[in-house]
Amino acid sequence: MNVPNLLTLLRIFFVPVLVAALLGDSDWLGRFLFSRETWALAIFLAAAVTDLLDGLLARRWGQVTTVGTLLDPIADKLLVSAALISLVDIHRTPAWMVILIIGREFAVSGLRSIAASAGYTIEASELGKTKMVAQVVAIALVIGGVRWPALSEYGMMAMWAVVLFALVSAADYFLKFWRVVDTQVKTRRRRELLELQRQQRKARRVELKAARKATASSSARAASSQQKA
Questions:
Q1: What DSSP string describes 39-63?
Q2: CB 104 within 8 A of CB 170
Q3: Euclidean distance between CA atoms 110 and 124, whole angstroms
Q4: Can you give the residue range of the structural domain that contains 164?
Q5: Residue 57: inside a domain, yes or no?
Q6: CATH of the domain at 172
Q7: Is residue 212 part of a domain?
Q8: Alpha-carbon Rg of the chain, whole angstroms?
Q9: Whose CB among 29, 66, 98, 217 lies 3.0–4.6 Å from 84's, allowing a Cys bridge?
Q10: What is the pLDDT of residues 103-159, one digit of tens each?
């Protein structure tokens, strides 16, 4: 277990803490100097920093592992989904926006799984990375708007930007899938068809060879019978 993976696990640990800060009782949180919204904002930003650090350190230290590759997107989706669903629960974000954003995550994850089964990896696009940054900014502004109402308008503007980036980046991923994976699948099927045709031709040649051998054997037996007669 290396440091980047520990940061990823820490981000997953932050998820229930963030939900508790957003939806929990403010009385016990008020004992710790700040309001629950301030704590929620601090927790979310700390989790977002771990997202930046784990990838940066993994690449710099050459510690990119299979576990980290699998856990990192899961941790991101858990954090963002938990924050957005909690904000819907406290009536700070429209539910339809959250459904679109989370639905996009499921759709792209499924698309990547299909691509992986076809032997192709769909890398994160620049639009996808921009969408992630926009999500962090938007969620931070919306959480901050609970405590500081002046930020609410900026938070909603940022959420509209997130929805736009989510839809455009999803379309970009699907275009990549259609152009590359669909072509690969068709090429593979064409090769399978050609291989099947070669096997059929080989089977026919074997059958013809066996038939000729049987004919020759019959002719030889007939000639031998005539000679004996």
A1: HHHHHHHHHHHHHHHHHHHHHHTT-
A2: yes
A3: 14
A4: 3-188
A5: yes
A6: 1.20.120.1760
A7: no
A8: 31
A9: 98
A10: 988 888 887 777 777 666 666 667 767 888 889 999 999 999 988 899 989 999 999
